[in-house]
Amino acid sequence: MPKMIMMANRELKRVHLDFEWELNIVWYGYLIQDCIDGVCVECKKYAKIMGIEFHKSDCPDYKKLHDPPKGDGYQCWESTSEGSPISPVFKTLDELCEWLANNSGDTILRDYTKEDWINTLKEKSIAMDMDTNKPS
User: Fold this and answer.
1) Contact yes or no for 82/65 (Cβ under 8 A)
2) Three-state secondary-structure class, residue 46
């Protein structure tokens, strides 16, 4: 099977260099749904942590909650589920790909070299708007 097919469930995201979210745990923002009655304590707590403003209805501005905070860092995410980081954040794509080549616990991807990761993530990123982390 060609390597590109196997990489279909991995994507590059640009996040803050100090972004911390537990690896392999779905990003909370992808699970949030609008408050129905305006009293969702967990959403308000999360919005406060993220510095998100509240509407007059006392609900957070959900558009700002869904995606992880954008920045200059490089991080690999899985996209098979709702989406979760599978690597720490790195300053360069090169550092990220070196880490991925040495730390892939995935049986199928364990033979990927640093160069394989660089080529695949760069190619997949061509179709991504790196300012929004969404397909262009």
Assistant:
1) no
2) helix
CA angle 77/90/136 to nearest 5° reads 50
Q: How far apart are CA 50 and CA 27, in angstroms?
A: 13
Neighbours of 7 (CB within 10 A): 19
What are the residue ranges in the chain where pLDDT is below 70? 1-8, 32-47, 49-50, 54-65, 105-108, 124-136
The Cα 74–Cα 92 span in angstroms is 6
pLDDT in tens, 80-117: 777 899 999 999 999 999 999 998 766 667 778 899 88
Give yes or no: residues 41 and 93 share one domain: no
Q: Are 126 and 91 within one domain?
A: yes
Whole-model pTM over 0.85: no
Is the domain of 52 the same as that of 106? no
Whole-angstrom distance, CA of residue 106 vs CA of residue 54: 40
Query: Does residue 55 fall inside a structural domain?
Result: yes
